[in-house]
Amino acid sequence: MKPRAGILITGTEVLTGIIADRNGPWLSERLRDVGVDVAVIEIVGDRPDDLLLALSHMRDDGLAVIVTSGGLGPTADDLTAEIVGHFSGREMMLDDRLEQRIGEILAPMVRRWPGLDLDAIKASNRKQAVIPEGATVLDPVGTAPGLVVPPGSGSGPTVVVLPGPPRELQPMWELAAATEAFKTASAGAPSYRRGIMRLFGIPESEIANTLRAAEEDGLALSELEITTCLRRGEIEISTMFEPPAAPAYDAFAAFVRARHSDTLFSEDGSTVDEQVASLLAGKTIAVAESCTGGLMSARLTDRAGSSAFFAGGIVAYSNEAKVSLVGVDPALIERVGAVSTEVAEALADGAVQRFHADVGVGITGIAGPDGGTEEKPVGLVCFSVASAAGEHITRALRLPGGRADVRDRSTTVAMHMVRRLLRGQAGQPVRGPGGDTVAEALKR
Amino acid sequence: MKPRAGILITGTEVLTGIIADRNGPWLSERLRDVGVDVAVIEIVGDRPDDLLLALSHMRDDGLAVIVTSGGLGPTADDLTAEIVGHFSGREMMLDDRLEQRIGEILAPMVRRWPGLDLDAIKASNRKQAVIPEGATVLDPVGTAPGLVVPPGSGSGPTVVVLPGPPRELQPMWELAAATEAFKTASAGAPSYRRGIMRLFGIPESEIANTLRAAEEDGLALSELEITTCLRRGEIEISTMFEPPAAPAYDAFAAFVRARHSDTLFSEDGSTVDEQVASLLAGKTIAVAESCTGGLMSARLTDRAGSSAFFAGGIVAYSNEAKVSLVGVDPALIERVGAVSTEVAEALADGAVQRFHADVGVGITGIAGPDGGTEEKPVGLVCFSVASAAGEHITRALRLPGGRADVRDRSTTVAMHMVRRLLRGQAGQPVRGPGGDTVAEALKR
Questions:
Q1: What span, in angstroms and rounded, lies between the C-alpha atoms of A377 and A433?
Q2: Which of B26, B43, B79, B324 to probe by mutation at the A interface, max A CB count within 10 Å?
Q3: N or C: which end of chain B has fewer CB within 10 A?
Q4: What is the pTM assigned to this prediction?
């Protein structure tokens, strides 16, 4: 039987929504990578009873592996190690070597913050070195050690205990996955493969139709676990399959390709951001943006190495800045308004000129919630992408959602327009839920 | 007994980490707001067995309310309504009025996307109108109706069934909370109060010490549920308590205030972003940023109404842009390097001048992972905030974490520096883990 896993995120601050959990989804992907199917992610507060209940349910459901995050810190509400020890039927013991190791890690912090309470630090240090007997210790990345705890009685789940901060958890997961205890618990995991197709510019219901059509055509979809979802304005079709089902996946991918050639932009897992970065090799790009307020520049500089292609950006929020810093003609703004395809083009051209860039992006719109009019409602955003040679792709769209949605979605639209320009597709008609002019966008 | 709740997030795309769940934390806060304690958030895939198991565990744990999100769409893997009906011991039935209502909602989409498969849409529409008998229907915000399903047998949890997209779920939650069925299930919920204190510039361990000291001083902390967490570089102390414990909270807040007056910046739940927005009333701010790549401008324009105070920004990624667009002296860059407190000051001054702003922010640093040197390592970031009158707050910091951490954390540091300047505290020494010069930052 294939081993299945549960992920248990602990922390009242996560349960109550004060901070967002990033570990659950990350661990889920890593477990899938090693062929372990994840049945459930649970989030509980720092209450021993709730922690124990969650662990017990996962054991009752027959899960072979449980990965926990959080509750390994120095404070009294950090209880995970002790509860997992109890759950696994193992005594707690002080690990001298570990106590010394944590002491070494804390030493620079003690020097850095003069005036700390040294006794309190020593007590915390010792607390973190008390672990279930027989557990494999994972060397701390921060100050908290991780643990791999096999079942005490020989049956039941193996529990991987990791700290809460993602930058500690992520490297320590690699250590955990390499332990004998984890390998034993996850023995029998099949080697999954994953195929990802990404589309931009069609509604999710069209993909549902395509799946139905593929089934009617006799494709072996039952061998594939297909998930579709809308993600930042794009549709992602993620498919998990075991190696023998590779021909079924290839047939499915060909079917999607044939029906959606104009909107399918990625079959190799690459994001539009990665594709744009590759297409920009040897070129530079600059941005002049208004309603996105810096998010387009931030997105282009999100990746390491972006200084090779990102020339710079101007956040021209006011008309004055559009004129003085980007060089938009004030008479144009007067005539057609700041939110217009004409001003978007002038912003894109201005970005090219001011930064001596090969490609310029102009974005101007109404992110809301205020500032909309009947003529130009909230969600109306005008985009233009220009090349130094004078090519343009320009369009107006009416984007759904709140302020944050409109701002974020706008950067996705702009990225796809940059991709089209860089692929030499400036002349092709734009398909999808948008028109090329403000008037057309508003008709929809 | 106080009613407790479970939150059940469904969707293989959430479980597998393809998209991040935002509903769990949001629902958790809303349930707390109405006095219902959340015991657990669970995420399961679109597998009927796993959904049923999760519901059953929550019933076994004695939870009075379960709120689900997702699985209400038109596709075959959208199973939540049917499974909840089965779990609650209720027959499924077609609600004619609801079918008609969904048809009305879909009509504009059908017009907008010519060429859709109308039979498929009709089948989807009907599927979404099949609901458990006796459930209260929540009017759709998108196309999916929500449900409040009381237990069929009279005992067991009441299940609130909501759609997955946050912008549909959030307004529909308000409808759900107002139903008689929900009010009956949550009867007996106490009215909680929440106090939030936010600090910037001290390590989390110092707060642990303060909690210990408060306990030793005899403060009634047992009446308070105190959670501390590190959030985007700030420490947040969130305290839940029932109204009779208000004096205990007041005493605790006074204790924290006395010990941490220099780092405590918020006691009313306000964020530094909100405080900066208020302090900027009647003033304008501009940004010239390098390593943050637009994120500082994006953060300042995140809130509605920011056009009142945000003059604009320049993302001066290259030295050329720092010189030509912000007016930094190229000889200065040559002499001290682009990542220096001097260039940060020149950027802040340039932002003031170019945008005729009252306040300017300059940020320059090495976000990594490449580009670091022994002298100027990855994570070194120089900040300056300038007023039009010539005041400055300038500092260099070495920030921990990866590229995304350094970029995000930098915006938090800059926000706090803007706050200090606007509060007329430019002359006060900076406390916390930073020095005022690059040399001091590197010593730590």
A1: 17
A2: B43
A3: N
A4: 0.80
